[in-house]
Design brief:
There is one protein chain. Among the domains are: 5-62 and 206-216 and 245-435, 7-stranded beta/alpha barrel (Alpha-Beta Barrel), CATH 3.20.110; 70-191, no CATH class. Helix content is 47%, strand content 9%. The chain has 26 helices and 10 strands. It has helices at residues 30-48, 60-67, 72-75, 77-83, 91-100, 106-110, 114-122, 140-152, 157-162, 164-172, 178-191, 194-204, 220-224, 246-264, 280-289, 298-305, 320-323, 343-352, 358-375, 401-412, 423-429, 450-453, 456-478, 483-496, 499-504, 514-531; strands at residues 5-13, 54-58, 208-212, 270-271, 293-297, 327-331, 334-341, 382-388, 418-420, 434-435. Strands 1, 2, 3, 8 and 9 form a 5-stranded parallel sheet that branches. The chain has a 5-stranded mixed sheet with strand order 4-5-7-6-10. The protein starts with a strand and ends in a 45-residue tail after the last helix.
Length: 576
């Protein structure tokens, strides 16, 4: 039996880059809304449990969106229409409110607020399609209350608990004034830059380790060698015109490390690659950049070793020592340590514990950790639990506060047999000893790269990206492109390399905002041509995403999908 087991949480914080830097317009409001909810709330929860250690991973492009708020009222349509006096809203703007101001699971984010639920019923219920038909039902007071609740409901419960003004708005429930609404919106925007301060404070007192993802959340293996998709699917077709983009992969990684150091005062020891996507070439790049460790999914470990990760009927690992250790990987740039997340336990938090009483869920989690300790032959097994730190909580009662409170309290009180650990501390206590014979190319979704490369729409999107980048390189080589324009165009390419656009292409996933993601991806590539002094080609004016006739519109991208919990790797949070 192990002396203790280290539960190593890694909470991954990520949003796509929603801003069009040429026009300034913000395509979707999720960075702002999650900023005052989950990114703030997760720090406040950790502050309440100083004995809990964790690793927090930030994507630099998210931090940039939280920090650059000077013109948010001007460029964010949701915020702009929230701020506009209700009496001055025209017919189209009122219709926009009815369609767009009720995102979030009705059962957990709207129903608990009686007035918000009443307004949802007034607009015809949860289905946003055709909601504008009911616009004449809404009085000026109804519209103003809608503007308030669409923002107030996204404040984290602990923020509301600690702020008399916010708590007063919740208690008032209805009949808000324009002055109250304005104060609420300014309080929301003012909180966003404070997110970095909260996590720097937790880092500096030693409670958390901060890590980073390459700058715009790109799939590094695909940038380095697009054909690595064939590691798992040997006959997968390749995108037309594909080419290695090693310079971009290096830039995305080095920029992320530099941006992290500027904000947090130190270089990170660890990296969470976007989507947990790894390959041997990506591993070498990360080590060369200075990463001591990185992490991915247990499915990648299974493919790398050529074994199955087996569980018993209760879901516990038959051989916990296979997964609950750091592995050593030799690369041309040197050695790195790899962690492989417990897929099932991570998904229980992401998708299933929300349906259990908080204490019961926390006790189940603790029982898994105790079982690992009891059956491990290692002195200090490491149990990596890695998942998105924002999207699950919309589906939990109380924004996840009752569950996380129960979980953190149980872990704090577990004694020496179960401890929480920052990943670097766990590695220091139990250095990697087992050498990985090879590293399969894959991700935390099905242990492959198919989501971002396997559908005809994915390949069409990549072909457009490759073509735009080639045009930029040609114009730069000609000497006729001003340096400032070249730099801005390269930034647009980097943004378009983010994983999220490709997540929504194909028939695997759909959301009510498919068209917005499609349009924003193409806008970034259109900007490349415009900055090069060219007219964007015609294909960039046509949608990539093709919705089937009579297909459902899908849900807003604010939370989780329900996955099978069989260890198959087929479940993942909706993104953003």
């Amino acid at each position: 039996m192990a002396s203790s087991v280290s539960v190593a949480f890694l909470w991954h914080f990520h949003q796509p880059y929603y801003r069009n830097d040429v026009t300034g317009e913000v395509a979707l409001p999720w960075a702002r809304l999650h900023g005052v909810k989950d990114y703030t709330g997760m720090a406040l929860l950790l502050r309440r449990f100083p004995g809990v250690r964790a690793t927090i991973n930030f994507v630099p492009s998210l931090l940039r969106q939280l920090e650059e708020t000077d013109h948010l009222f001007e460029h964010d349509p949701w915020l702009r229409l929230s701020a506009k006096p209700a009496a001055d809203l025209d017919e189209a703007e009122r219709a926009f409110l009815l369609r767009e101001f009720f995102w979030g699971p009705p059962a957990t984010m709207i129903a608990p607020h009686r007035r918000y639920a009443e307004l949802l019923a007034l607009r015809g219920g949860p289905d946003h399609l055709g909601a504008e038909r009911h616009v004449r039902r809404f009085t000026e007071a109804d519209l103003r209350d809608t503007q308030v609740w669409a923002n107030l409901a996204w404040f984290h419960p602990l923020l509301i608990e600690d702020d008399t003004f916010l708590a007063g708005l919740v208690k008032k429930e209805r009949g808000y004034t324009e002055e109250e609404k304005t104060r609420l919106l300014h309080a929301q925007v003012a909180r966003l830059p404070r997110v970095v301060e909260l996590y720097r404070e937790l880092q500096d007192r030693g409670q958390i380790e901060l890590t980073v993802t390459p700058y715009y959340h790109p799939i590094l293996p695909l940038l380095l060698d697009w054909s690595c998709v064939r590691d798992a699917h040997p006959h997968a077709p390749l995108a037309p015109g594909w080419e290695p983009l090693e310079d971009d992969a290096v830039s995305q990684t080095e920029r992320a490390l530099a941006a992290f150091e500027r904000r947090f005062g130190r270089r990170p020891r660890g990296v969470w690659p976007a989507e947990g996507a790894v390959s041997e070439a990506a591993a070498a790049l990360l080590v060369r950049a200075g990463a001591r460790w990185f992490a991915t999914d247990e499915g990648v470990l299974a493919r790398s070793l050529g074994v199955a990760i087996e569980r018993n009927a209760a879901g516990a690992l038959k051989n916990p020592d296979l997964l609950y250790q750091a592995y050593k990987l030799a690369t041309p740039a040197g050695e790195a340590a790899l962690f492989f997340r417990d897929h099932r336990l991570s998904d229980l938090i992401g998708f299933s514990y929300r349906d259990r009483p908080p204490r019961e869920a926390a006790e189940h989690f603790l029982s898994v950790a105790r079982d690992a300790r009891a059956r491990s032959a290692r002195k200090a097994p490491i149990l990596p639990v890695i998942l998105d730190g924002e999207n699950a909580w919309e589906y939990y009662p109380g924004g996840g506060v009752p569950f996380l409170t129960a979980l953190y309290a149980a872990l704090e009180g577990a004694g020496d047999e179960v401890r929480t650990a920052r990943l670097s501390d766990a590695l220091d206590a139990a250095p990697a000893e087992t050498t990985l014979p090879r590293l399969a190319a894959g991700s935390w979704i099905n242990a492959d790269l198919r989501i971002w490369a396997g559908h005809a729409e994915d390949r069409a999107a990549w072909a457009l990206l490759f073509a735009a980048r080639r045009r930029l390189v040609e114009r730069a080589a000609s000497g006729s492109l001003p340096a400032a324009a070249e730099a801005r165009a390269r930034e647009e390419i980097a943004i378009a390399e983010g994983s999220d656009w490709f997540w929504w292409f194909g028939d695997e996933h759909s959301t009510a905002h498919d068209a917005d993601f499609d349009r924003l991806f193409r806008a970034h590539l259109q900007n490349v041509y415009t900055l090069c002094g060219d007219d964007p080609p015609a294909p960039l004016r046509e949608p990539i995403k093709r919705r089937k006739k009579n297909a459902p519109a899908g849900e807003a991208p604010t939370g989780a999908m329900a996955p099978p919990l069989d260890g198959s790797g087929s479940g993942r949070r909706a993104s953003p």
